[in-house]
């Protein structure tokens, strides 16, 4: 979207008047130029629904501006404060018309054309759509051919390929393509639409404009069944990539509704009913639309066009004309890259060929010089050969004599050599024997070293064990001494305990005797007590009989009676405590 907007803005910007220094004046870019003057920034903000900020323009504009495609001056302002804020909620036709108004008067040809100003405007917008993405803008011959074919097909005429090929050849020899104004002159000249009236050409341009710019894939009159009244009304239907709009007439002034298309929609053919023919059904998520075409051909065309649009929505693909334009551009880029690669290879081959030619010329000169030197050397060689033959004859005789002497010397030397070789073999044998003896001695030394290390290790182990045994012996002696001392101490304790036991046995026997004596005393006291009790009882009976209910107070025991295993104790508690203190004192003395 940004690139499409930039192309139209580029035309408007380049059409602005220049000051004396050849630069675009600020008054033509900001909103201070007055209502009558063509103010670019203010108009852009108006048609694109973007808030205008003249202060930002003042800060960003510089005198070295080169247009909206430059990286300085007006371009930063255009990107940051206008293009980046565009939301898409603007009228593209109105935007293009504003830019056209700024540039058409200055650039449009003054010569009469076979097309109207409105048609020239539409051709200009189509040019911006089909032109290359580089500045200054041009349309290449392939896109010119595509546009002229579309216009010719819309007019219902035949395409003259041979005529365009001649034009293309003439164009390629002078330039890469045409500007927007040259394209308008080409179409307005009637060169490729001869025999067609002005109205037919205008209708064809309008049809191509609707398809390429307004994304109109198909349009025409059909009958639509109402949702409330169920009546059939003729409407002008316009199919776009994601919507079908229907109007009262083809002037598009009174819009009656939209059919929103998405990947869930479908279109089905319906049988004839209620007197209506060529029926088909468009199913959407919330509504269903019944439509009647004028004939079976129109019905099939509409069904196919709607189904294709739905399939593109499901696949997320652009409209066919935009996809075709992108493919053509990619194909041109590919061919251009291949051509550049081919030219590069040709240049490399040409350079390599020139280098080879230079090398061959150098080699040829070297061969000629070598041939001259060879001829001179051959002459010298023949002369030298005659001299050498004479000298060789003399040398040959001398060589024979020398050879005889040498043979004799060789025989003598051979004999000496044989003796020398025999001596060398004997020395080698002695060397091998010495090597073996040295190896045996080395092995013996290694074995001796191993045995010595083993004896040293055993001696260390024996020393360690002896030290450990001595340590154990000392510990055993200490343990025996400690055991003897403990044994003596236990023996003393045993003797003391035996003495204490004997004392305790003696005391026990004494206590037994004392207990027996106490028991005998107790029996005597018991008998006395029984006698006294009997006497007291008889006395109580007498008193009670003679004196009535008189109660006698009997003296009781002041101390509680002690009970032992053998019966009531014969001594008091105080006496028992005295005896216990006595026993404890004796026991402490014995210990």
TrEMBL record:
<dbReference type="InterPro" id="IPR057836">
    <property type="entry name" value="EF-hand_SWAP70_N"/>
</dbReference>
<keyword id="KW-0175">Coiled coil</keyword>
<feature type="domain" description="PH">
    <location>
        <begin position="215"/>
        <end position="311"/>
    </location>
</feature>
<dbReference type="Pfam" id="PF25530">
    <property type="entry name" value="EF-hand_SWAP70_N"/>
</dbReference>
<dbReference type="GO" id="GO:0005886">
    <property type="term" value="C:plasma membrane"/>
</dbReference>
<dbReference type="GO" id="GO:0003677">
    <property type="term" value="F:DNA binding"/>
</dbReference>
<dbReference type="Pfam" id="PF00169">
    <property type="entry name" value="PH"/>
</dbReference>
<keyword id="KW-0539">Nucleus</keyword>
<dbReference type="GO" id="GO:0030027">
    <property type="term" value="C:lamellipodium"/>
</dbReference>
<keyword id="KW-0597">Phosphoprotein</keyword>
<dbReference type="GO" id="GO:0005737">
    <property type="term" value="C:cytoplasm"/>
</dbReference>
<dbReference type="InterPro" id="IPR057837">
    <property type="entry name" value="PH_SWAP70"/>
</dbReference>
<feature type="coiled-coil region">
    <location>
        <begin position="321"/>
        <end position="542"/>
    </location>
</feature>
<comment type="subunit">
    <text>The SWAP complex consists of NPM1, NCL, PARP1 and SWAP70.</text>
</comment>
<keyword id="KW-0963">Cytoplasm</keyword>
<keyword id="KW-0238">DNA-binding</keyword>
<comment type="function">
    <text>Phosphatidylinositol 3,4,5-trisphosphate-dependent guanine nucleotide exchange factor (GEF) which, independently of RAS, transduces signals from tyrosine kinase receptors to RAC. It also mediates signaling of membrane ruffling. Regulates the actin cytoskeleton as an effector or adapter protein in response to agonist stimulated phosphatidylinositol (3,4)-bisphosphate production and cell protrusion.</text>
</comment>
<keyword id="KW-0966">Cell projection</keyword>
<dbReference type="InterPro" id="IPR011993">
    <property type="entry name" value="PH-like_dom_sf"/>
</dbReference>
<keyword id="KW-1003">Cell membrane</keyword>
<keyword id="KW-0472">Membrane</keyword>
<dbReference type="GO" id="GO:0005634">
    <property type="term" value="C:nucleus"/>
</dbReference>
<dbReference type="InterPro" id="IPR001849">
    <property type="entry name" value="PH_domain"/>
</dbReference>
<protein>
    <recommendedName>
        <fullName>Switch-associated protein 70</fullName>
    </recommendedName>
</protein>
């Amino acid at each position: 979207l940004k690139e499409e907007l930039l192309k139209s803005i580029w035309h408007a910007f380049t059409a602005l008047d220049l000051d004396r220094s050849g630069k675009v004046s600020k008054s033509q870019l900001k909103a201070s130029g007055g209502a009558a003057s063509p103010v670019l920034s203010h108009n852009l903000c108006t048609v694109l629904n973007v808030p205008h900020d003249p202060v930002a323009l003042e800060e960003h504009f510089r005198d070295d501006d080169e247009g909206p495609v430059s990286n300085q001056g007006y371009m930063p302002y255009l990107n940051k404060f206008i293009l980046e804020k565009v939301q898409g909620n603007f009228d593209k036709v109105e935007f293009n018309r504003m830019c056209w108004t700024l540039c058409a008067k200055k650039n449009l040809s003054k010569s009469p054309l076979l097309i109207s100003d409105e048609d020239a405007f539409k051709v200009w917008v189509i040019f911006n759509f089909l032109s290359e993405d580089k500045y200054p803008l041009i349309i290449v011959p392939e896109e010119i051919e595509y546009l002229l074919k579309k216009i010719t097909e819309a007019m219902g005429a035949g395409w003259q390929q041979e005529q365009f090929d001649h034009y293309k050849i003439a164009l390629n020899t002078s330039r890469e393509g045409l500007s927007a104004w040259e394209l308008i002159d080409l179409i307005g000249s009637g060169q490729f639409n001869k025999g067609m009236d002005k109205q037919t050409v205008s209708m064809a341009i309008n049809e191509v404009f609707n398809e390429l710019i307004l994304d109109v894939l198909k349009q025409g009159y059909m009958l639509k069944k109402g949702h409330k009244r169920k009546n059939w009304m003729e409407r002008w239907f316009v199919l776009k990539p994601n919507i079908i709009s229907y109007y009262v007439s083809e002037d598009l002034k009174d819009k009656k509704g939209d059919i929103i298309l998405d990947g869930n929609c479908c279109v089905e053919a319906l049988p004839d009913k209620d007197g209506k023919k060529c029926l088909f059904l468009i199913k959407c998520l919330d509504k269903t639309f019944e439509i009647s075409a004028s004939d079976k051909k129109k019905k099939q065309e509409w069904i196919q066009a709607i189904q294709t649009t739905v399939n593109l929505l499901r696949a997320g693909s652009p409209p066919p004309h935009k996809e075709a334009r992108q493919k053509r551009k990619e194909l041109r880029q590919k061919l251009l890259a291949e051509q550049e690669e081919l030219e590069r290879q040709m240049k490399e081959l040409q350079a390599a060929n020139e280098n080879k030619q230079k090398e061959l010329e150098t080699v040829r000169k070297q061969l000629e010089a070598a041939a001259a030197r060879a001829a001179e050397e051959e002459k010298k060689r023949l002369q030298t050969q005659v001299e050498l033959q004479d000298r060789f004859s003399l040398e040959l005789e001398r060589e024979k004599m020398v050879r005889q002497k040498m043979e004799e010397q060789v025989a003598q030397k051979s004999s000496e050599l044989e003796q020398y070789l025999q001596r060398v073999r004997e020395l080698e044998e002695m060397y091998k024997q010495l090597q073996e003896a040295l190896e045996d001695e080395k092995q013996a030394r290694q074995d001796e070293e191993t045995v010595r290390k083993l004896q040293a290790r055993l001696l260390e182990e024996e020393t360690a064990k002896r030290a450990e045994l001595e340590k154990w012996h000392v510990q055993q002696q200490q343990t025996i001494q400690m055991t003897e001392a403990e044994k003596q101490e236990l023996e003393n304790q045993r003797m003391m305990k035996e003495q204490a036991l004997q004392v305790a046995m003696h005391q026990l026997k004494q206590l037994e005797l004392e207990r027996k004596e106490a028991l005998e005393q107790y029996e005597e006291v018991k008998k006395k007590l029984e006698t006294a009790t009997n006497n007291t009882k008889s006395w109580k009976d007498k008193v009670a009989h003679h004196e009535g209910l008189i109660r006698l107070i009997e003296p009781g025991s002041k101390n509680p009676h002690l009970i032992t295993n053998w019966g009531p104790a014969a001594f008091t508690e105080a006496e028992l405590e005295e005896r216990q203190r006595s026993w404890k004192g004796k026991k402490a003395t014995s210990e």
